[in-house]
């Protein structure tokens, strides 16, 4: 700052000297010429205004030089017209004013712009007119310079100014060199200074949140600290006290509190993306079951069910693998595009989604909508042709042929892995896949919801609420399994019980399930097994009986427990009704600074906290019961989105192949090879834009909804808040 201030001062002084030099030069041209009445004015000068008459036979300029005084300076070009008009009106023309532009532009000290100043030279006579002119000059902020009267003095002043300008230019050049050296040194240490200042401000911000003790000499900080890190905190405080030379050693004391602790979930670069998905729904309550470890498997798998394609999954896997291999590259980590940073932070999630999509793609036997023949097909067309009357006329009139699995040798058993590739050639492959994927979605959805209900057991056991195992977990499982678990049983039982031989008489599961709720039977829809109707009646009765237990069990238990506590409770005498003084460290060791005697004696809960509001508990439980019972129905139907999106992805992929890529194979000559290049380019662009990006985002959002609403809603509260420890953000100085 000091060097810059000196440089600015030198620049201003040099600008004044140059302006003064130009003023003297232009004034010398005007006052030293013996101009007569017939000689024109100096070039570049404005019109000369005279109102006096010739006197004593002398020319007018000679008379002026003998009797008048001079005022010279510079003025902003925008003010010249108004300045000249005001001079004429104020002095009534008893002056001679000359205006000429400066030969070189100079900086305006007010705005910093480079402008061409206007030099003025005013000759006047009379003291009164001189005072008026000086006031007008002050009004227009003109820079006025001393103008010597004699020509010799003006020549001497010009010579002196040349010397001063030369010396000042040398001094200014040396100053700029020194300033450049100073700035070079500062530029090397400026990042370090910035980090130090930011750290100091962050530290003082935290220190301002601490409390003083009674002596006003010690700071008391109440913080949350993980138990695992408590030893490290104590060592750090001990080292800080030693290094600072403090006479009083810092120490840590655990204090009781009634506040709910924050939640700290330690993550690494692999699990951080999955934990972010869970935290977007809600941060886990303290010591609540965290769904993120289970979502590492279930989330990519549910996504892959809707995105099953070997080719598309491989492209997604390779893209994520590239980000994982080059994750330490500064070019990737320090991008400014928010969408790119979102992809980069979730690179491990995308990696697993691509891997699982390859797996489900092999199950669906789809690679860019085309089937792959990994194993020989289990269907034999030759056997069917040998055992049927397929003549040439029959083949000519029937473009589609039916393979009957009841004919010996036509169907030789299930395909080793996934869907048989012959189904891609069948005209009824959509009917087959729809039935398969719909039942698969229902089965996986009920298993997923049941797993969520089971995870609630760990919450009940950990929080010492074992009554909820009987009054909540057991009714929930009975309701879910008696109705929808039985539906899964019917699906598998029908798959196992009926074969191709008796498939025509196989009953409808949907009709059986509807009759189950109506407590009726349909004579046209044969039972799956003997005694099916009584079993279904018992299951519906069990499901209905579990609802009042779920609704009233926990509120009645809390009411009975509250009554027992009220009878045997020991009253606690609170402090005075006035302001309660907080207990400081000097009064009672181990107590919180902001804790009162009442909080300490009651273990962090006031006596009134034991008396729970029965109406509030009942209302909360009623909402939970209605949400769970209705949710089991709606959530099961919601899992059908797995079937719908899987079908949509397969059909879009097939349409894209048929409408785009297939056209490149139409030409059999060399023309087809030429056309294939732009066709493949269009196919690749549309595949990435529509099937990978848009369909991938759609499947991701649906998988996100299934985890948030259908899965986590069964056991996860998410009413906590994160532990935000004091730390220096590394992004600022990496």
Q: Would you kindly provide a written description of the structure presented here, covering whatever features stand out?
A:
Keywords: Hydrogen ion transport, Ion transport, Membrane, Transmembrane, Transmembrane helix, Transport. It holds the Pfam family V_ATPase_I. This is V-type proton ATPase subunit a. GO terms for molecular function: ATPase binding; proton-transporting ATPase activity, rotational mechanism. It is found in: Membrane. With 734 residues, this protein is mainly alpha-helical. The chain has 22 helices and 8 strands. A 4-stranded antiparallel β-sheet has the order 2-5-1-6, sandwiched between helices. Strands 3-4 form a two-stranded antiparallel ribbon. A two-stranded antiparallel ribbon has the order 7-8. Helix 15 runs antiparallel to helix 16. Among the domains are: 142 residues, Alpha-Beta Plaits (2-Layer Sandwich), CATH 3.30.70; 175 residues, no CATH class. The chain is elongated and about 135 Å long. It starts with a helix and ends in a 23-residue tail after the last helix.
Please outline what is shown here.
Helix content is 57%, strand content 4%.
C-alpha end-to-end distance: 28 Å
- Low-confidence segments: 33-60, 565-611
Average pLDDT metric: 83
**Would you list the SSEs in sequence order as H and E?**
HHEHEEEEHEHEEHHHHHHHHHHHHHHHHH
| Total helical elements | 22
- Choose one word for the global shape: elongated
β content, as a range? under 5%
Across the major sheet, the strand order is 2-5-1-6
- Overall strand count: 8
Major β-sheet annotation: 4 strands, antiparallel
Helical/strand content category: mainly alpha
Organism: Quiscalus mexicanus
Pfam families: V_ATPase_I
Region (Disordered): 586-607
InterPro entries: V-ATPase_116kDa_su, V-type_ATPase_116kDa_su_euka
